[in-house]
Structures are given as C-alpha cells and as structure tokens.
Amino acid sequence: MPPHAPLLFVNARLVDPASGVETRGGLLVLDGRIADLGPALIAQAAPQGARIVDCAGDVLAPGLVDMQAFVGEPGAEHRETIATATAAAAAGGVTTIVAAPGTSPPVDDPAVVDFVLRRARDTGRVRVLPLAALTKGREGREISEFGLLREAGAIAFCDGKRSLRNAQTMRRALTYARDFDALVIHFPEDRDLVGEGVMNEGELAMRLGLAGVPREAEAIIVDRDLRLVQLTGARYHASIVANGLSLAALEEAKARGLSVTCGTTINHLTLNENDIGDYRTFLKLRPPLRHEDERRLLVEAVANGLIDVIVSDHDPQDVEMKRMPFAEAEAGAVGLETMLAAGLRLVHSGDVPLPTLLRAMSTRPAEILRLEQGRLAKGAPADLIRFDPDEPFVVDPAELHSRCKNTPFDTARLQGRVKSTFVAGQSVFERRSD
C-alpha cells in the first residue's frame, strides 16, 4: 500500500472520548488525518485504491497518550530502549509516549532532547515526546534552561520521581515556567517522611515486618505545591496521586480555579496493598499501593473527572534489581502493554464508562500537553487503535515486548486486547491470530 493511500475502517464501534459519543459506522483516513466518520461510511463508499479494514464490531478509538514512561535511552539501554518501549506501546494501544527525563545523562540539555527525538524518529514505532528536567542534573537546586529546552522540543518539565525538597526552588521553577507558559509536572513525595518506607503504612506493613510510607508523605507536598501555584499562577500537574488526602486538596484547588491537573497510575486503580502477598517485588511501586479504600477513592475520582489522567508509570527493572528481598528491591513495573487491558477491569466492573476511561488515557493528557491527538474528529491526527474490549487473555511476561518483564499483572486474567494500532494512518502494530 502506498504511504498515503486512503484507509477506511468499516463496521466499527466508534468511541470518541472527547465528546463521549459512541456510534456504529466507519472512519476514513486521508494523508494521516481523519477525513470523515460516521454511520454513512461503508465499504462500498471507499475511495479508489483505499485499504479497507473491517473492524467486525470492535472499538475504534483514539490512540492512548501515556504521560509517564521510562524509555531507557540514553544510558539505561539494559532496561529499555526506544525501540522496545515503542513496540510495547504499539501493542498496548499507546500512540504517544511522554518520555521521563531520568536518563543518563538526564534530559537537561538541548542536545539530549535532540538525541531522544532523533532516536525516536529512527527506531520508534509511535510518537515519543521528551520531558526535560525541571532542575539541572535533576538535583533540585538550579532551574533548567526552559527556553532552550522548549525550543529543542521538550513537551514539559519534570524531575521524574525526584520531588523538589526546597519550596523556594519550587516557587522559582513555577514562576519561570509561568513566564514561558510551560507545564510543570511534579512527583509529590516528601522523601524525609518516606524515610526507609517501602509499602503502605498500616496493619499489613506491620504484619509483613516492612517499614511503611504514610499518606501524608504525598499529601504534604501536594498541599505545598498548590499553595505555590496560587502564588505564582503557573500550570501544574501532579504526576501521581494515590490517596484521598491529595484528592481533597486538588478538588479544592480546582474549585478555586487554579490551573492544576493530576494523574494516577493504572496500578493504583486496579491493585491494592494486599496484592503484594508474599513479598512480590513486582508490586513494589512508588508511591506504594494503598489500602482498598484508597483505591476505591481513586476509581471514583477517575469516574467524576477529578483525576484527569491515567498513566502506565512504565518503569522497567532488570531481574537483578527485582530478585531481592522486598525492602531492598528496586521499585517499578512495566505497564505500557497492559495499561488499557487493566483499565478495562474498571469498565467491566461498571465503575467507569468506556468513554470516561479512554478520556483519561487519551483526550485529557492530549489537552493538558496541548496536542492535537485524543479525539475522533475531522482533521484530527489518525492515531487510532482497534480493540475488542471483551476478548479474554492471560498475561504472559515472556510475550511482552518490553526488554524487562517486571509486570504486576504476571499471569493475570484480563479482558480487552488491542488488535491494531495506527500512527498518522500508518499501521505500527497488527496482532496475529492465535
């Protein structure tokens, strides 16, 4: 098929999370963009030379936009590469990855931004947008050169999972970002209060003999940051919130009209502290998995829109860093390939409607990052996924495309498989029939 040949999807369940509208029909792609869609589009109406994809009733939706994923390059290719990360993303329906800045060297120089973009162009299957470090060296002291980094192609500014301890530094960063109309993404964690904690503080941690992390370690930083946002007028996104204390503060800040948004991870929405079981290190995460009551609050916040974004928090770790006692193992889990399927648990349970789930995984992150993606509309980029939300499967880590296999859903029974993924109308993944 020629690179820009017309592409017509027919017999599809069209789900547009931007409008919340679901219809049956077709969708036409011309020159990498959506040219038309609706019930009138059938195979007989295909333009000459078009490729026709019969979706057979499957969902056709915008590709997912993952606002937090570690892609490995530069410096951590033993954990992941842009080639393997984007292969995993395509298989999971993620068409845009926002790449974390915690590489070696960190993304605090325009040359590193350029490197990531060039590697993504040469070896990636999906779009890769680099985050630049909020502070030089991600050390929390000196603010990065926002102007030069934005000019090089950085989409936003974040120190990864390093929270800024110093309130004055955070105020300066927010003020600087406001002057550039840049987005600050911050991981809220009081590292001093976390201390040696490795899981949720509570009865289970005591029974397992593990040091706990109180909810306040997150909430204190959220409270501080929101006050600084009110002081500076900057755009702010809390990358991961995982408890009701943070949600209450964010709800109040939004009610006051502050330019704040927040995200949570698919792990915190679908798992809780009990899943750690007998010290399963693939379930060691930052922030830690919380109590079931907290998980329910997070799910409710996604359903009502208080939580804007769901991320994979894709953080590959090699076997040596996970095959250790729980307290000593590295935190993190892979998630690009299972984010959608795990999220569909919330749909099947009746807790979150499908358009709402997809809105948090595509439309809202695109809006926050000011991207064109995340909607089924004429003129929008044809970044699309076709999936059967009901197809069951068992997660086999050996079949995952990521270089590391540390999935918290090892052997889990999930429903919902991506059948094909398209970026700008070009196929980047096709699932082979079993």
Automatic annotation (TrEMBL):
<dbReference type="GO" id="GO:0004038">
    <property type="term" value="F:allantoinase activity"/>
</dbReference>
<protein>
    <submittedName>
        <fullName>Dihydroorotase</fullName>
        <ecNumber>3.5.2.3</ecNumber>
    </submittedName>
</protein>
<dbReference type="InterPro" id="IPR004722">
    <property type="entry name" value="DHOase"/>
</dbReference>
<dbReference type="InterPro" id="IPR032466">
    <property type="entry name" value="Metal_Hydrolase"/>
</dbReference>
<feature type="domain" description="Dihydroorotase catalytic">
    <location>
        <begin position="57"/>
        <end position="242"/>
    </location>
</feature>
<dbReference type="InterPro" id="IPR013108">
    <property type="entry name" value="Amidohydro_3"/>
</dbReference>
<dbReference type="InterPro" id="IPR050138">
    <property type="entry name" value="DHOase/Allantoinase_Hydrolase"/>
</dbReference>
<dbReference type="GO" id="GO:0005737">
    <property type="term" value="C:cytoplasm"/>
</dbReference>
<dbReference type="GO" id="GO:0006145">
    <property type="term" value="P:purine nucleobase catabolic process"/>
</dbReference>
<dbReference type="GO" id="GO:0006221">
    <property type="term" value="P:pyrimidine nucleotide biosynthetic process"/>
</dbReference>
<dbReference type="InterPro" id="IPR024403">
    <property type="entry name" value="DHOase_cat"/>
</dbReference>
<feature type="domain" description="Amidohydrolase 3">
    <location>
        <begin position="349"/>
        <end position="429"/>
    </location>
</feature>
<keyword id="KW-0665">Pyrimidine biosynthesis</keyword>
<keyword id="KW-0378">Hydrolase</keyword>
<dbReference type="Pfam" id="PF07969">
    <property type="entry name" value="Amidohydro_3"/>
</dbReference>
<dbReference type="GO" id="GO:0004151">
    <property type="term" value="F:dihydroorotase activity"/>
</dbReference>
<dbReference type="InterPro" id="IPR011059">
    <property type="entry name" value="Metal-dep_hydrolase_composite"/>
</dbReference>
<keyword id="KW-0862">Zinc</keyword>
<dbReference type="Pfam" id="PF12890">
    <property type="entry name" value="DHOase"/>
</dbReference>
<dbReference type="GO" id="GO:0046872">
    <property type="term" value="F:metal ion binding"/>
</dbReference>
